[in-house]
Design goal:
Rossmann fold, 5-stranded parallel beta sheet, 6 helices, alpha/beta
Length: 161
Amino acid sequence: MIPEIKKILYSTDLSDSSRQSLSWAMTIATKHNAKLLMLTVIEDVSSSPSVQIYFSEQEWNQLKKRINSEAIDIMKERLNGFCEEVKATIPGCTYVADEILVRRGNPVEKIIASAEEHKCDIIVIGSLGAGGLTDAILGSTARRVLRRSKIPVFVVPITNK
């Protein structure tokens, strides 16, 4: 029995090199007539003691909430633009992301949780493999997602073309 691919989670850091992995995600989605969810993960605003001392706790919490909210809106716009740019490089591609997700927190945890929450069949992620001997083979985020995921992970090696 060949498993069906109905929903794909594509995770990106929006780097230029991750365009290759989005091309693969779009191609897989098109071939399988699957839904494509695009995800990027940003870290919460940290509690910087050097700045925080100028605000009351309530003011600081409001400021963090506003900054995080604005960051999410900006990232959604960037993800949409990123998708349109990559789509233009694939001849005949009319595919658009079905949903754009921006999460805050640890990338590996949020990728796994988002895939489970949205009942995805596969995760597509790029890997630069830029650090250390182990990471030279497979990037650390991709490696950890691959190790922890309960669904297949399609890892796209990013080449510098």
